[in-house]
Amino acid sequence: MYENYYSIDEVCAKLKITFKTVEAAVEKQILHPILIPFGSKTRKLFPYEEIDAISNLLEQTYGIKELFKLAQQDDRFSDITLNTLRNFIDRYPIPKFVNPIDSWDIRRILRSDLRGLFDYIDQKYRRRKYDSIKQWIKPGAEIKFISDVNGYLNFDFLRDCYINKYHAKGFSSFQDVARHTIYVAEYQNVDWFTNEKFDDIYIKCSDENKFLEFYELWDRVNNPEEYYTNKEVAQMFGRRVDTIAKFVNAIRVGKLLYLEKSKVDYIYKLEKETITLNELVEQLNLKTDHGDWSDKKIIRVLEKLGVEYIPPGKHPFGHANIIFQKDVPKIKKHFENELTLKTSSPYKKYKFLIQNIKHSHVPRTIEAYEDFVVERFNAVTNGIVLVNALVSIYTETFGTLKKEIFDYDNNELMNLLDTVDTNTAKDEMSRFLNFCNRTLSTRYTNQFKIHKGTNEEEVQPYSIEQWLDFGFLVFNIHHEHYPIYLEKALNVRGYAMTWLYCSLHYVVGWRHSDLLALPSLSLETVLSMNEYELIQSIREGKFSKEMAQLIINEMMRIVKAFQRKPQKTKRKSNQPLKVVVEDSYVPVIGMLIALCEAHRRIEKKKTLLTERAGRKNSHINFFSEPYREIFGEGHFMNSRAVKTYLNIVQTTSQDQGWGMGYYLASIIRSHKPDKRGIASTTQVYLEHINKSNDVDRITFALCERGTFGFLPYLMLKLIGGELFVKKDMLEQNEQISELLPIKPYMLEWLVKGVVDNQSRVAAVIKELLVTPKEAMMEMLRKISLGEAPSKMEHSQCLLKSVDRSKCIYPTRTDCVGCEYLIPEMYFLLQFRDLISQVLTNIETAVFEFDRQRFSYALLNAYLPILQEAVNLFGRERVSAFINLVEIKNKILKLGTNNRLQFQR
Fold it and tell me: CB burial class (10 A; 0-12, 13-18, 19+) of residue 186?
């Protein structure tokens, strides 16, 4: 049936043209194929007569390119240029033919007319003398001359490599090849040379490969299957292509730009299939119907609808945000719905919001609820405030029902009420249950209270198992879900906020409103990096524990410095908020605070956390199935979490008959995860560690809690049967030199201060030697539980573990240098301020007596404590609290200026 037709591949072979040229000829109606079905597509076939006629014409004639090549091979005018040849063809009176499929090929002549044309040219042509390039070198151009041509490639190589190997299109004369050579040399940053007569051109042999790279590039881009030229792209888009060329990193060769075809095709398709947000506003008439809509407001709608938008910089169409046209109907439907909701009555708004949700499994409940809703809207004057709560009950609560609401008993309904998200929804759900009990036959008999506010006394705490399991999920960096959670938090601000919000409940007893008011901080000041660098460091695993500690310290400083008060009781409360994050929680919480700050700055938001962080749906979306396994249909609520946290402290303290002062002032303390990786609270610590007399477990608890004072470790060694052996002077010198490399005579006095301090400690140890082991165990328990507070924050007193009323230095305002002091890691924050003040006092003291007094305190009290902290935890860990380099430099400066006073 189709025997007298060529396929498109056969046409390309017969006419020696490309597929693209055939398609262009079809589009211009030069070729007239027929279309036949081919599977799900169509196929073009070309009639023999049309193709054979064109083929015969091409075989019987020469085109201009073929003529030019033949002319160059003729010695009579081998240096003729293409333009000169065109002029001779136009003037010679012979028939000229046009190539039907190439509108530029208009000077074809019959092969039989070739001899006559060349004889005519020979008569008229006058050979030009190209013996010098001097006449066309730009004035002022730098010219390099050579006399010895060894090691250089000359004109013959340059012409041959271009014409023969790289298919020249007219560059054959000396001038043309030389001009082209200079262009390529400059493009490739290769030096070119000439001789004194200016009749040859050279490049170094060593530059051959670099020079030829140009032609390799040319071969790559001169491929119509892979690259467009800027002219072709301009024709596609109907305009200049500067921005498109820049966007796709176009390659310039000569005067042409070459653009990757796949990238250009994508951009062309993108332009055809997208519109800008301004065009969307005009198309949907948003300014008239919905007020003024900025890009920022529309983008929030797009994110809510899950509609993709492409921001500026991700496309070459200027500074507009663009969307796909296929999404316009979805957006239009949203705004139509918004307009409907805006202009509807509360009841119609409620009906509109639930219209697509059916609960066919509980038809009687739905029927009763409809009657209840009508009654509620008739009973209130401002029904709009009820809409969200009533919709929430219908869509979420009723979706979880296993049976008709009338068939639930009292206990089941209490559990069901716990799953309702907001207080308003709880209020309406309670009203509905009472409505059913009043108007219908129900299995339950309770009258449910209307919850008009949160009463913390009625809030039920979580079980210890729930508290532990969720802590395990939140803090265990070795958990199988941790990489997934981290990736989510890095990519989405809402997920990072959710994670931080939940984690904070394990270290503070703050209300929901106080957590949302968590202050922001300066990443540049604390970590010397911006928000993007911070996210990159976390993603690459470079965010260290020390960096997390610096973030925590800054947060503590802000909360303390600005005396931040609880939001709810700010006017009545004199007690500021407190925050202390113990060692085991630092990596996760420090990282999350920094990450939330980075997200806040990127999205240009005002607060670190938003209401979204505390919502049930946010928790489920982030923690996924493990969350449901822990809380079932319930969720992690601030009121229950705080109640759980406070109960852990209060109940244990009361049961054991301990004083409450220290606990109430520091209810946010916590401990190291145990072998399961669970972040244990005070109560868990009591239950799982302090019930036994295992000294190793108490040792573990003390060490992980961050205690680094002299005495606890010596006591533990005594209890364990190990004698304390003091280091010799050389070892002491070596350790102290590592901390503060100061002058030898200063080092000697510093060591003397350390020895004096340890001598006082040794005297205390002698007293402990006669203490029964059981009594010492009791002292250790009180220390590990924080029951022996000193005069300073984040530190305890060995003496007070025996008698809370005792103090060996009652007139002092701090405990630095006291042999009974047991400081903790966060003690270093206050210690930092004190040691800085002592150094300032030494520098500014007017009288020598004052300088001696402060110098003695520095060497005999402050530096021994700082030294032991470094010995136990390392320089890097302590540096997160105290700038050791700064302290060292200040001491060295004081020594240089003879401000430090020593008794020689």
Answer: exposed
**172, HSE (Cβ side, Cα atoms, 13 Å):** 19
**Residue 257 pairs with which residues in a beta bridge?**
252
* SS3 assignment for 351-366: HHHHCCCCCCCCHHHH
The Cα–Cα gap between 261 and 224 comes to 8
Q: What pLDDT, on the 0 to 100 scale, is given for residue 323? A: 92
Structure tokens at 550: 């610096």
Output the pLDDT for position 662. 32
C-alpha 773/C-alpha 246 separation (Å) is: 80
pLDDT of residue 536: 93
Contacts 24+ apart (CB under 8 A), 378-381: none
Spatial CB neighbours of 475, under 8 Å, sequence gap ≥ 6? 503, 506, 584, 585, 588, 673, 677, 679
Task: Judge contact between 196 and 186, C-beta under 8 A.
Answer: no
d(CA 336, CA 331): 9
- Between CA 99 and CA 703 the distance in angstroms is 92
Q: Locate 7 and state its tokens.
A: 């396929």
Q: Give the position of tokens 């803090």.
A: 475
Extended beta strands in 805-849, E state? 821-823
Residue 752: the pLDDT is 56
What CATH class does 134-221 carry? mainly alpha
264/242 Cα distance (integer angstroms): 13
Residue-level pLDDT at 834: 82
pLDDT at 727: 45
Q: Which helix (H) or strand (E) holds 34?
A: strand 34-38
> What is the C-alpha radius of gyration for the chain, rounded to an integer number of angstroms?
43
pLDDT at 848: 83
- Type of residue at 159: R
Q: Which helix (H) or strand (E) holds 809?
A: none
**What's the CATH fold of domain 5-57?**
Multidrug-efflux Transporter Regulator; Chain: A; Domain 2 (1.10.1660)
Measuring CA to CA, how many Å separate 281 from each of 129, 144, 302, 315, 771? Answer: 68, 63, 13, 20, 83
Residue-level length of the chain: 904
Quote the pLDDT of residue 765: 55
Sequence ranges of the domains in the chain: 5-57, 63-124, 134-221, 344-439, 464-656, 689-896
Tell me, yes or no, if the pTM score tops 0.70.
Answer: no
- The type of residue at 611 is E
Residue from 30, 120, 22, 140 nearest 67 by CA: 120
Q: What is the distance between the alpha carbons of residues 3 and 259, in angstroms, rounded to a whole number?
A: 40
Tokens of 661: 């002062």
What pLDDT is stored for residue 766 in this prediction? 59
pLDDT at res. 598: 94
| Residue 755 neighbours by CB distance under 10 Å | 15
Q: How many CB atoms lie within 10 A of CB 901?
A: 17
At what angle are helices 8-15 and 19-27 packed, to 10 degrees? Answer: 110
Residues of the chain with pLDDT under 70: 1, 127-138, 161-174, 287-293, 343, 451-459, 561-576, 647-774, 776-777, 780-787, 819, 825-826, 872-873, 902-904
> What pLDDT score does 609 carry?
93
**How is 32-73 classified by DSSP, letter by letter?**
--EEEEETTEEEEEEEHHHHHHHHHHHHHEE-HHHHHHHHHT
Q: Does residue 862 contact residue 838 with C-beta atoms inside 8 Å?
A: yes
What the block records as the tokens of 381 is 């004057």
- According to the model, what pLDDT value does residue 401 have? 92
Q: For 366-379, what is the HEC assignment? A: HHHHHHHHHHHHHH
CA–CA distance, 353 with 333 (Å, rounded to integer): 14
| Rounded Cα distance, 42 and 248, in Å | 33
Of all residues in the chain, what percent are helix, strand and coil, respectively (each to 5)?
A: 60, 5, 35
